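Morning. Coffee machine broken again, so started the prediction first thing and wrote up yesterday's gels while waiting. Chain of 297 residues, entered below exactly as on the submission form.
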Amino acid sequence: MKLSSNNIELFLAVVDGGSFSNAARTLRRAPSAVSMAIANIEAELGITLFDRGAREAVPTPAALALLPHARLIAEQLKQLHVHVKELSQGLESRISLGVAAELDPAPFLRAVQALSQRHPLLDIEVLTAPQDDLHEMLQQGRISACMVFGGGRINHAEQFQLVGSDALLAIVSAQHPSSDVERPLFIEELVNLRQIIVASRELDMADARPMVGLSHWRTDSLPVALAMVEAGLGWGNFAASAIAPSLAAGRVRQVAFKNTGNGLALPIHFVWTKDRPLGLAARAFLQLLAEGRAGEA
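Came back before lunch.
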Protein backbone atom coordinates (compact mmCIF):
# COMPACT_ATOMS: atom_id res chain seq x y z
CA MET A 1 0.00 0.00 0.00
CA LYS A 2 1.15 3.52 -0.76
CA LEU A 3 0.37 5.92 2.05
CA SER A 4 -1.51 8.97 0.78
CA SER A 5 -1.40 12.44 2.25
CA ASN A 6 -4.88 11.79 3.67
CA ASN A 7 -3.64 8.61 5.39
CA ILE A 8 -0.74 10.53 6.95
CA GLU A 9 -3.04 13.33 8.08
CA LEU A 10 -5.38 10.77 9.67
CA PHE A 11 -2.55 8.91 11.40
CA LEU A 12 -1.10 12.12 12.88
CA ALA A 13 -4.54 13.32 14.00
CA VAL A 14 -5.06 10.13 16.03
CA VAL A 15 -1.55 10.29 17.52
CA ASP A 16 -1.90 13.96 18.47
CA GLY A 17 -5.51 13.64 19.65
CA GLY A 18 -4.91 10.49 21.69
CA SER A 19 -8.19 8.95 20.64
CA PHE A 20 -10.37 8.33 17.59
CA SER A 21 -13.04 10.69 18.91
CA ASN A 22 -10.58 13.59 19.33
CA ALA A 23 -9.17 12.95 15.88
CA ALA A 24 -12.69 12.88 14.47
CA ARG A 25 -13.43 16.31 15.94
CA THR A 26 -10.19 17.71 14.46
CA LEU A 27 -10.94 16.26 11.04
CA ARG A 28 -14.69 16.90 11.26
CA ARG A 29 -15.49 13.26 10.65
CA ALA A 30 -17.47 10.63 12.53
CA PRO A 31 -15.46 8.63 15.12
CA SER A 32 -16.57 5.37 13.50
CA ALA A 33 -15.25 6.58 10.12
CA VAL A 34 -11.88 7.43 11.65
CA SER A 35 -11.67 4.06 13.41
CA MET A 36 -12.57 2.21 10.24
CA ALA A 37 -10.08 4.18 8.13
CA ILE A 38 -7.26 3.39 10.58
CA ALA A 39 -8.28 -0.28 10.56
CA ASN A 40 -8.10 -0.30 6.74
CA ILE A 41 -4.62 1.26 6.83
CA GLU A 42 -3.46 -1.33 9.37
CA ALA A 43 -4.88 -4.18 7.28
CA GLU A 44 -3.15 -3.00 4.13
CA LEU A 45 0.16 -2.30 5.88
CA GLY A 46 0.03 -5.56 7.82
CA ILE A 47 0.92 -3.86 11.14
CA THR A 48 -1.02 -2.60 14.14
CA LEU A 49 -0.69 1.14 14.63
CA PHE A 50 -2.78 1.66 17.77
CA ASP A 51 -3.71 -0.33 20.86
CA ARG A 52 -7.39 0.38 21.37
CA GLY A 53 -8.53 1.16 24.88
CA ALA A 54 -11.90 2.24 26.19
CA ARG A 55 -11.15 5.90 25.54
CA GLU A 56 -7.63 6.06 24.15
CA ALA A 57 -5.72 4.99 21.07
CA VAL A 58 -2.14 4.31 22.15
CA PRO A 59 0.53 4.24 19.40
CA THR A 60 2.32 0.92 19.08
CA PRO A 61 6.13 0.68 18.69
CA ALA A 62 5.57 0.35 14.94
CA ALA A 63 3.55 3.58 14.91
CA LEU A 64 6.20 5.40 16.95
CA ALA A 65 8.83 4.25 14.46
CA LEU A 66 6.80 5.74 11.60
CA LEU A 67 5.89 8.93 13.45
CA PRO A 68 9.04 11.09 12.74
CA HIS A 69 8.86 10.27 9.03
CA ALA A 70 5.13 10.99 8.91
CA ARG A 71 5.65 14.40 10.54
CA LEU A 72 8.46 15.23 8.12
CA ILE A 73 6.32 14.32 5.10
CA ALA A 74 3.36 16.28 6.48
CA GLU A 75 5.54 19.37 6.96
CA GLN A 76 6.98 19.03 3.46
CA LEU A 77 3.48 18.74 2.01
CA LYS A 78 2.45 21.84 3.93
CA GLN A 79 5.44 23.75 2.54
CA LEU A 80 4.63 22.48 -0.94
CA HIS A 81 1.04 23.73 -0.74
CA VAL A 82 2.24 27.13 0.49
CA HIS A 83 4.85 27.33 -2.28
CA VAL A 84 2.29 26.46 -4.96
CA LYS A 85 0.10 29.28 -3.67
CA GLU A 86 3.09 31.68 -3.66
CA LEU A 87 4.01 30.72 -7.23
CA SER A 88 0.43 31.36 -8.32
CA GLN A 89 0.74 34.84 -6.78
CA GLY A 90 3.89 35.62 -8.76
CA LEU A 91 6.75 34.45 -6.52
CA GLU A 92 9.86 33.50 -8.46
CA SER A 93 10.76 29.81 -8.39
CA ARG A 94 14.45 30.74 -8.35
CA ILE A 95 16.43 33.83 -7.46
CA SER A 96 20.11 34.57 -8.12
CA LEU A 97 21.75 37.25 -5.98
CA GLY A 98 25.28 38.65 -5.86
CA VAL A 99 27.36 40.07 -3.03
CA ALA A 100 30.54 42.01 -3.78
CA ALA A 101 33.77 40.30 -2.76
CA GLU A 102 34.90 43.63 -1.29
CA LEU A 103 32.14 43.56 1.34
CA ASP A 104 31.59 41.74 4.61
CA PRO A 105 29.00 39.11 3.53
CA ALA A 106 27.53 38.53 6.99
CA PRO A 107 24.53 40.97 6.72
CA PHE A 108 23.77 39.64 3.24
CA LEU A 109 23.79 36.03 4.42
CA ARG A 110 21.55 36.82 7.39
CA ALA A 111 19.00 38.20 4.93
CA VAL A 112 19.37 35.06 2.78
CA GLN A 113 18.71 32.92 5.85
CA ALA A 114 15.62 34.95 6.74
CA LEU A 115 14.33 34.70 3.15
CA SER A 116 14.83 30.93 3.14
CA GLN A 117 12.85 30.65 6.36
CA ARG A 118 10.03 32.72 4.86
CA HIS A 119 10.04 30.74 1.60
CA PRO A 120 11.56 27.29 2.37
CA LEU A 121 11.18 25.90 -1.17
CA LEU A 122 12.55 28.95 -2.96
CA ASP A 123 15.73 28.08 -4.90
CA ILE A 124 18.33 30.71 -3.89
CA GLU A 125 21.69 31.09 -5.65
CA VAL A 126 24.36 33.34 -4.11
CA LEU A 127 27.32 34.48 -6.21
CA THR A 128 30.29 36.48 -5.00
CA ALA A 129 32.73 38.36 -7.21
CA PRO A 130 34.46 41.75 -7.38
CA GLN A 131 31.78 44.35 -7.80
CA ASP A 132 32.75 45.29 -11.36
CA ASP A 133 32.08 41.66 -12.32
CA LEU A 134 28.76 41.74 -10.49
CA HIS A 135 27.64 44.82 -12.41
CA GLU A 136 28.56 42.99 -15.62
CA MET A 137 26.56 39.91 -14.55
CA LEU A 138 23.65 42.17 -13.66
CA GLN A 139 23.60 43.71 -17.14
CA GLN A 140 23.80 40.24 -18.71
CA GLY A 141 20.85 39.01 -16.63
CA ARG A 142 22.98 36.40 -14.85
CA ILE A 143 21.86 37.71 -11.46
CA SER A 144 18.67 39.45 -10.37
CA ALA A 145 20.32 41.97 -8.05
CA CYS A 146 23.47 42.50 -6.02
CA MET A 147 24.85 44.22 -2.93
CA VAL A 148 27.84 46.44 -3.74
CA PHE A 149 29.59 49.61 -2.65
CA GLY A 150 27.89 52.68 -4.09
CA GLY A 151 29.91 54.12 -6.96
CA GLY A 152 30.94 57.69 -7.52
CA ARG A 153 28.71 57.88 -10.61
CA ILE A 154 25.07 56.96 -11.21
CA ASN A 155 24.44 54.25 -13.82
CA HIS A 156 21.20 55.30 -15.51
CA ALA A 157 20.46 51.70 -16.53
CA GLU A 158 20.35 50.65 -12.89
CA GLN A 159 18.22 51.29 -9.84
CA PHE A 160 19.45 51.06 -6.27
CA GLN A 161 18.40 51.22 -2.66
CA LEU A 162 20.73 52.32 0.14
CA VAL A 163 21.03 49.44 2.63
CA GLY A 164 23.98 50.52 4.76
CA SER A 165 27.50 51.89 4.77
CA ASP A 166 31.03 50.87 5.64
CA ALA A 167 34.42 52.53 5.81
CA LEU A 168 37.54 51.57 3.90
CA LEU A 169 40.48 51.37 6.31
CA ALA A 170 44.10 51.49 5.25
CA ILE A 171 45.85 48.59 6.99
CA VAL A 172 49.24 46.96 7.03
CA SER A 173 50.63 43.77 8.56
CA ALA A 174 51.64 44.03 12.18
CA GLN A 175 54.90 42.43 11.01
CA HIS A 176 55.36 44.60 7.90
CA PRO A 177 59.09 44.70 7.01
CA SER A 178 59.07 48.33 5.85
CA SER A 179 60.01 50.98 8.39
CA ASP A 180 57.98 53.51 6.39
CA VAL A 181 54.73 52.40 8.00
CA GLU A 182 56.04 52.45 11.57
CA ARG A 183 55.57 56.23 11.70
CA PRO A 184 52.56 58.42 10.85
CA LEU A 185 52.44 59.10 7.11
CA PHE A 186 51.11 61.71 4.79
CA ILE A 187 48.49 59.82 2.80
CA GLU A 188 50.34 60.69 -0.41
CA GLU A 189 53.25 58.52 0.76
CA LEU A 190 51.14 55.38 0.25
CA VAL A 191 51.53 55.96 -3.48
CA ASN A 192 55.06 54.56 -3.25
CA LEU A 193 54.09 51.41 -1.32
CA ARG A 194 52.66 48.28 -2.95
CA GLN A 195 48.90 48.04 -2.51
CA ILE A 196 46.89 44.81 -2.43
CA ILE A 197 43.53 45.28 -4.13
CA VAL A 198 40.40 43.23 -4.72
CA ALA A 199 39.45 43.60 -8.37
CA SER A 200 38.08 41.85 -11.42
CA ARG A 201 40.40 39.55 -13.30
CA GLU A 202 39.50 41.17 -16.63
CA LEU A 203 37.59 44.42 -16.12
CA ASP A 204 39.08 47.80 -15.25
CA MET A 205 38.02 49.26 -11.92
CA ALA A 206 35.04 51.53 -12.54
CA ASP A 207 35.51 53.18 -9.14
CA ALA A 208 39.18 53.87 -8.48
CA ARG A 209 38.67 55.59 -5.11
CA PRO A 210 40.02 52.63 -3.08
CA MET A 211 43.20 52.45 -5.22
CA VAL A 212 46.04 54.75 -4.14
CA GLY A 213 49.30 52.95 -4.85
CA LEU A 214 51.04 53.19 -8.21
CA SER A 215 52.20 49.60 -7.70
CA HIS A 216 49.56 47.06 -6.86
CA TRP A 217 48.90 43.34 -6.78
CA ARG A 218 45.35 42.18 -7.37
CA THR A 219 43.18 39.23 -6.39
CA ASP A 220 39.46 38.62 -6.79
CA SER A 221 39.08 37.37 -3.20
CA LEU A 222 38.97 39.52 -0.06
CA PRO A 223 40.14 36.68 2.26
CA VAL A 224 43.14 36.12 -0.02
CA ALA A 225 43.84 39.86 -0.20
CA LEU A 226 43.71 40.11 3.58
CA ALA A 227 46.05 37.11 3.92
CA MET A 228 48.47 38.81 1.53
CA VAL A 229 48.47 41.94 3.69
CA GLU A 230 48.90 39.88 6.86
CA ALA A 231 51.91 38.19 5.20
CA GLY A 232 53.51 41.60 4.69
CA LEU A 233 53.21 41.64 0.90
CA GLY A 234 51.67 45.11 0.79
CA TRP A 235 49.07 47.35 2.38
CA GLY A 236 45.33 47.18 1.83
CA ASN A 237 42.30 49.44 1.83
CA PHE A 238 39.43 47.19 2.90
CA ALA A 239 35.96 47.33 4.45
CA ALA A 240 36.21 47.87 8.20
CA SER A 241 33.58 45.26 9.07
CA ALA A 242 35.36 42.60 6.98
CA ILE A 243 38.77 43.13 8.56
CA ALA A 244 37.60 43.64 12.16
CA PRO A 245 38.64 40.11 13.29
CA SER A 246 42.17 40.59 11.90
CA LEU A 247 42.47 43.97 13.62
CA ALA A 248 41.19 42.55 16.92
CA ALA A 249 43.64 39.65 16.71
CA GLY A 250 46.55 42.00 16.09
CA ARG A 251 47.46 40.48 12.72
CA VAL A 252 47.09 43.87 11.02
CA ARG A 253 47.02 47.46 12.20
CA GLN A 254 45.65 50.69 10.84
CA VAL A 255 48.01 53.08 9.12
CA ALA A 256 48.29 56.39 10.98
CA PHE A 257 48.13 59.52 8.83
CA LYS A 258 49.48 62.98 9.57
CA ASN A 259 47.14 64.93 7.30
CA THR A 260 43.83 63.06 7.38
CA GLY A 261 41.87 60.41 9.19
CA ASN A 262 41.96 56.74 8.25
CA GLY A 263 38.58 55.69 6.90
CA LEU A 264 36.80 56.43 3.64
CA ALA A 265 33.05 56.09 4.28
CA LEU A 266 31.16 54.53 1.37
CA PRO A 267 27.45 53.71 0.96
CA ILE A 268 26.33 50.13 0.37
CA HIS A 269 23.66 49.71 -2.31
CA PHE A 270 21.33 46.92 -3.37
CA VAL A 271 21.26 47.25 -7.16
CA TRP A 272 19.09 45.91 -10.00
CA THR A 273 18.43 46.95 -13.58
CA LYS A 274 15.52 49.14 -14.65
CA ASP A 275 14.50 46.78 -17.44
CA ARG A 276 14.24 43.83 -15.03
CA PRO A 277 12.27 45.01 -11.98
CA LEU A 278 12.58 43.08 -8.74
CA GLY A 279 10.22 40.14 -8.31
CA LEU A 280 8.39 39.24 -5.10
CA ALA A 281 11.26 37.24 -3.63
CA ALA A 282 13.86 39.88 -4.51
CA ARG A 283 11.70 42.63 -2.98
CA ALA A 284 11.28 40.54 0.16
CA PHE A 285 15.06 40.05 0.30
CA LEU A 286 15.66 43.79 -0.05
CA GLN A 287 13.27 44.45 2.83
CA LEU A 288 15.00 41.86 5.02
CA LEU A 289 18.42 43.23 4.11
CA ALA A 290 17.42 46.81 4.91
CA GLU A 291 15.79 45.77 8.20
CA GLY A 292 18.86 43.78 9.19
CA ARG A 293 21.25 46.65 8.48
CA ALA A 294 18.98 49.05 10.33
CA GLY A 295 19.04 46.73 13.34
CA GLU A 296 22.84 46.90 13.38
CA ALA A 297 22.89 50.68 13.48
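The chain has a mean pLDDT of 87. Going to sketch it on the whiteboard this afternoon.
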